[in-house]
From TrEMBL:
This is VWFA domain-containing protein. InterPro entries: VWF_A, vWFA_dom_sf. Residues 541-550 have a biased composition (Basic and acidic residues). Pfam families: VWA_2 (PF13519). Residues 1-23 form the signal peptide. Residues 207-226, 527-550 are annotated as: Disordered. Keywords: Signal. Residues 209-222 have a biased composition (Pro residues). Residues 26-205 form the VWFA domain. SUPFAM superfamilies: vWA-like.
Length: 550
């Protein structure tokens, strides 16, 4: 790692000797701030090597050399327009450049061709001698043609040179951008090859020194700030700025200091120009929020800091230890200062005010609750186990026969243990075939209903186990046709002591079909004139019986 860092430093120093120390012209250093700079070499990110190399080399550059600093890919992901001249060419800019490099975020694409073109234009290359030093660890990703640009800049410039440092590129990759330097009369240096760097350094040192350059021009006057309000939100004091998923609410402040009209709501990193006046600013991230009163005065720039005093809680709800997360699991978090608990589903990642978080996870009928301490700026991630078994229930007309899959199918689950009055606690119910239940470990009774047939079946649930409960209804299907009838009713054949038969089901129609326990039945059809007819029918297990009454 040390050898590689020295190689990069040597490459930049080489360019400083060929352009800064001898020529003393205006120079802009372009640093690749794309996301690939997070890649590591010998355990150290390339971006750190580049920062340290810049700091080392710039300390040895004469103070009167006018050096500028440009970067690309440091503000937006996926943007080919993210190019910024951060430090204009000026004497004594070494400290400003190193500070700028240290504050960069490396996250974007690699528009190196456009960046070199903008740097050349900033140096007025068609009027004055100009040099650009490009440090890149990747190839063009925004459709530019570096080779063609080199020819264009050389042809239209007074005395333009581009030197390119291939930072960790392979030899084949280097060939694709070396033409940018070669077409302008500059040098391409492979920073990953220490021997080649040393040879290039020796060759350059032996080159004759150019004539002294005139004194540098005075530094340009400071530009008027583009924005007057640049707030920063932190989860905890000393933490990194929050720039993703957060929100900013801007309100006019009333004379009594309370919120007035909403001016705007913005998201992520935020900077703007606010008209002079009194405001209330609310910073939010997840369930955490904090507000400040801000007085904006003309000509002033405000950079308030908002400390959310919050952390991040990640919950993985699982039915049993080692099982997959249940996406439909309900996660309720009663966090400090909440008007009402927040509800999430499945894997939950929430930013919450620091303090004790009362978390309840529900999967089916299984419930687990826990109080989790969350400190500001910290992340707590954990599994919460509801402790249930999974049950799928189906009804069959006969054991091993056809599955009941029509309407009128219902399942009710009750506790197996009866209360002192002989009743059982109802747990849950569902309708239709393949009804699913997540139940805590216990003994239960499944009550299955298919139209007029009702059967009970006990079963036991263990945590983490899957059960396919199949219940045989010992029933068939009775299909009745009664032309001209206004009502069809099914009775048991046996009469009670008073001579009455028990009614099992009816329909106000000329046709009636229902699943019914196997047995003998009487079917009565009634017409609108109160006349009636009856017939008998026998229903067999797993079979269809049809009868016409007229």
């Amino acid at each position: 790692m040390a050898v590689f860092a020295r190689s990069v430093a040597a490459a930049i120093l080489l360019l400083s000797m060929t352009t800064f120390g001898f020529a003393a012209n205006k120079v802009i250093i372009i640093l690749d701030a794309s996301g690939s700079m997070w890649a590591q070499i010998d355990g150290k990110p390339k971006l750190e090597i580049a920062r340290e190399s810049l700091r080392t080399v710039l300390q040895s550059v004469p103070a009167d050399d006018e050096i500028g600093f440009m970067a690309y890919g440091h503000r937006e992901k996926g943007s080919c327009d993210d190019i910024q001249l951060i430090v204009p060419p000026q004497p004594g800019s070494a400290s400003a450049i190193t500070d700028a490099a240290d504050s960069l975020k490396f996250l974007g694409k690699t528009p190196l061709t456009a960046a070199v073109k903008q740097a050349a234009e900033a140096l007025k290359y068609t009027e004055d001698k100009a040099t650009v030093v490009l440090i890149t660890d990747g190839l063009e990703t925004c459709g530019g043609d570096p080779c063609a640009l080199g020819k264009e800049l050389k042809a239209s410039g007074v005395d333009f040179t581009a030197d390119v440092v291939g930072f960790g590129l392979t030899a084949d990759e280097g060939k694709q951008i070396a033409c940018l330097a070669e077409n302008t009369g500059g040098k391409y240096i492979q920073a990953s090859d220490e021997k080649a760097l040393q040879e290039a350094l020796v060759e350059t040192v032996k080159a004759p020194a150019p004539a002294p350059e005139p004194a540098p021009a005075p530094a340009p006057a400071p530009e008027k700030p583009e924005f007057n309000f640049l707030p920063t939100a932190l989860l905890a004091e000393g933490g990194d700025p929050v720039t993703d998923g957060n929100a900013w609410e801007v309100y006019k402040a009333k004379t009594d200091g309370t919120r007035g009209d909403n001016v705007t709501t913005e998201y992520g990193a935020y900077k703007t120009n606010l008209e002079p006046g009194d405001y209330i600013i609310v910073a939010r991230d997840g369930e955490a929020k904090v507000e400040q009163k801000v007085k904006i005065e003309a000509g002033q720039v405000y950079k308030p800091l908002f400390i959310l005093n919050a952390g991040t809680l990640i919950i993985h709800p699982r039915p049993s230890q080692g099982a997959d997360v249940v996406d439909g699991a309900v996660v309720v978090i009663d966090y400090p200062g909440a008007d009402m608990p927040a509800t999430y589903y499945g894997t939950t990642k929430a930013v919450l005010p620091a303090g004790d978080q009362k978390v309840t996870v529900t999967i089916g009928q299984g419930v687990v609750a826990e109080t989790i301490a969350l400190a500001a700026g910290k992340t707590v991630e954990k599994d919460m186990i509801a402790g249930v078994g999974h049950v799928v229930a189906n009804a069959y007309y006969a054991a091993g026969g056809d599955k009941a899959d029509g309407s009128g199918i219902g399942f009710k689950i009750v506790k197996a243990k009866k209360k002192i009055d002989g009743t059982r606690d109802e747990v849950v119910y569902a309708y239709g075939p393949d009804s699913k239940f997540d139940l805590p470990p216990d003994d239960y009774v499944l009550i299955a209903t298919v139209d007029l047939a009702v059967v009970e079946q006990p079963f036991t649930v263990k945590v983490g186990e899957f059960q396919d409960v199949k219940i045989a209804m010992n029933a068939g299907v009775l299909a009745i046709t009664a032309p001209g009838a206004s009502k069809i009713e099914i009775f048991e054949t046996k009469k009670d002591i008073n001579g009455n038969r028990k009614s099992l089901g009816y329909a106000y129609d000329q046709k009636y079909q229902a699943a019914i326990p196997a047995g003998d039945y009487v079917v009565v059809s009634e017409k609108s004139d109160n006349s009636s007819k009856e017939g008998t029918v026998t229903v067999k297990v797993g079979e269809r019986s049809e009868v016409t009454v007229q």
